[in-house]
């Protein structure tokens, strides 16, 4: 027997960081990728039926929440369509681990830097595109132009920073070591932030749809550029916070392990251990970073464009706060 749980909302309280962390830990769990297409479609039907008032006999509350976890992890909240598998947020860790590990290899040449920055920013473009707010779509030409600009700028930043690092050989070894770890992060963070803004520039220019309630049945009030700016900025911040642990922690751990006699006798374990530390860092950092703000964000009407002031909802009450999907 199922109780009257509300599947239009996340399972955990989104007004608290802890609640958002629990929610996004489930959404980004790579184990969600193991669900078959039949299981995904069944989960979507179960959630849809429950929301529309059809109660499946014999289904428990826990089964409903598990179905919603698969839906939230797989289907885009704006379109209801499946996000392409390699670019679902549950795929973020397995997709990015080999890329980050390659970017952390010591003494990379310019060709290696350019290649892995191109791969990294291409993957970032795909994640930003497939997980963006879909109420304001970019055309194919706009997407291609943004992709070219994002990749070109990221490669320029990465090569420039690494060339600068090469010219700082006169510094103390400790400072040199710190800079060698900081440069990949600075390149990824700055290029990644630019990538988000370029791939979602349409939201900045035309705005994104806002509605009078966080419910899927909320009434759309129009498109707001200010809401679009808020959505893109919060995603850019989360990308930086995600990258920091994955680019710093593995290097620090491996630097200590490589000094041990145990690893010096087992050099073949260096790469597997490096991949494991990158994967562990990403698994922890990703939900922590995304949870900085709820996916269904909100903003006071007083902070929006003047045209949104004085509106009333379907019950005639003044609209004081609007809601929008900020994307991931």
Overview of the molecule:
- This protein is mostly helical and about 325 residues long.
- Helix content is about 60%, strand content about 5%.
- The chain has helices at about 15-25, 35-50, 60-75, 90-105, 110-130, 140-165, 175-200, 200-205, 225-255, 260-265, 270-290; strands spanning about 210, 220-225, 295-300, 320-325.
- The chain has a two-stranded antiparallel ribbon with strand order 1-2.
- Strand 1 and strand 2 (about 220-225) form a beta hairpin.
- About 35% of the residues are buried.
- The model has no long low-confidence stretch (mean pLDDT about 85).
Quick tags:
globular; mainly alpha; 328 residues; 11 helices
User: Helix fraction?
Assistant: 55-70%
Could you say which structural class the secondary elements and strand pairing correspond to? mainly alpha
Described by strand count, sense and barrel closure, the largest sheet is:
2 strands, antiparallel
Number of strands: 4
- Cα-based radius of gyration, to the nearest Å: 22 Å
The residue ranges in which pLDDT falls below 50 over 5 or more consecutive positions are: none
Strand-residue proportion: 5-15%
């Amino acid at each position: 027997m199922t109780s009257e749980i509300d599947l239009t909302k996340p399972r955990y309280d989104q007004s608290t960081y802890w609640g958002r962390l629990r929610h996004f830990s489930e959404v980004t769990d790579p184990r969600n990728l193991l669900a078959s297409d039949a299981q995904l479609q069944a989960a979507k039907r179960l959630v849809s039926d429950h929301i529309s008032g059809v109660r499946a006999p014999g289904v428990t509350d826990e089964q409903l929440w598990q179905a919603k976890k698969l839906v939230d992890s797989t289907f885009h909240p704006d379109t209801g369509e499946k996000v392409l598998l390699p670019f679902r947020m549950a795929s973020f860790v397995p997709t990015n681990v080999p890329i980050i590990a390659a970017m952390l290899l010591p003494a990379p040449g310019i060709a290696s830097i350019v290649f892995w920055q191109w791969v990294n920013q291409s993957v970032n473009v795909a994640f930003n595109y497939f997980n963006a707010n879909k109420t304001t779509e970019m055309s194919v030409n706009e997407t291609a132009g943004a992709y070219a600009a994002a990749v070109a700028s990221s490669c320029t930043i990465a090569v420039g920073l690494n060339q600068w690092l090469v010219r700082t050989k006169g510094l103390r070894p400790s400072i040199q070591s710190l800079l060698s770890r900081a440069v990949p992060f600075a390149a990824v963070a700055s290029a990644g932030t630019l990538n988000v803004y370029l791939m979602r520039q349409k939201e900045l220019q035309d705005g994104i749809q806002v509605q009078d309630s966080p419910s899927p049945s909320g009434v759309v009030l129009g498109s707001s550029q200010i809401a679009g700016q808020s959505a893109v900025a919060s995603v850019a911040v989360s990308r930086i916070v995600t990258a920091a642990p994955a680019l710093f922690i593995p290097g620090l751990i491996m630097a200590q392990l490589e000094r041990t006699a145990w690893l010096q006798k087992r050099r073949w374990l260096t790469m597997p251990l490096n991949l494991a530390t990158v994967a562990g860092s990403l698994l922890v950092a990703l939900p922590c970073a995304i949870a900085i703000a709820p996916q269904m964000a909100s903003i006071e009407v007083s902070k929006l464009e003047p045209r949104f002031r004085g509106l009333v909802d379907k019950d005639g009450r003044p609209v004081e706060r609007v809601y929008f999907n900020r994307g991931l």
